From TrEMBL:
It comes from the Bacteria. This is AcrR family transcriptional regulator. One of its GO terms (molecular function) is transcription cis-regulatory region binding. Signal peptide: none annotated. Residues 18-78 form the HTH tetR-type domain. Transmembrane segments: none annotated. It holds the Pfam family TetR_N. Keywords: DNA-binding, Transcription, Transcription regulation. The lineage of its organism: Bacteria, Bacillati, Actinomycetota, Actinomycetes, Streptosporangiales. Residues 41-60 bind DNA. Gene3D superfamilies: Homeodomain-like, Tetracycline Repressor, domain 2.
Amino acid sequence: MGESGAGPGTVRPGGRTARVRAAVLQAAGDLLAERGFDGLDLAEVARRAEVGRTTVYRRWGNPSALAADLLSDMADQSLPRTETGSLDGDLLANARLVQRTLADPRQGRLFCALIAAAECDERTAGALHRFYRTRIAEWAPCVEQAEERGEVPPGTDHAEVVRAVSAPLYYRFLVSGDPVDVPAADRAARAAAAAARAGAFTR
C-alpha cells in the first residue's frame, strides 16, 4: 500500500552491478517526481546517476522497463507491516503509513507519476499492480489475525479490508484534491474496521 521504506535505489550488497542499479533507480525516481513519466529520459537518468548511457540503454532499454524495475525495487524495500495486537491499531498503522507516503513531497509525486504512466503503458501498469499486490499481501495477515481473535466474522476477505483502508486516501490524492492528512487516514482506518466487524467484507 504504497509505503516505501528507504528511497528507491538504496545501496545493497552485490558489487558494482548493484551500485549501478541503485544509482540509476535513485535518479529515475527523482526525475519521475520532478517531470512525470513523459520526462523520464534515459540519457538524463544516466547523467544524474553518473553512469554510461550505454549501460542504461543496454540494461533497461526504455522508460517503461526502467519504471517497472523501479516499482519492483520499491516493493522489495517497502516497510513491513505493524502488528499492534488489535484490528483498529493495525489498520490505523496501515492508514498512517499510506498517508505519510502520499503526503511526502517526493514520494507523493513519484507515485502520482507512476500511476499516471500505468494508465497508458501496459508494462508500467503490470509492475504497479504487482507492487500493490505485494503491499496488500504484506498487510492482509493483520486482518487474518483479527479473525482468529474473533474481532471480525469468519470468512472475512482480508485483502479487501486492507484495500478499504487506502482507497479513500487514494481518492483524495488522485481525484478530489482534498487533503491527505492524518485525520483522513484515521477516519479511513476506523471506517474499514467498523465495516469489517459488521461483516461487510465477508466472502
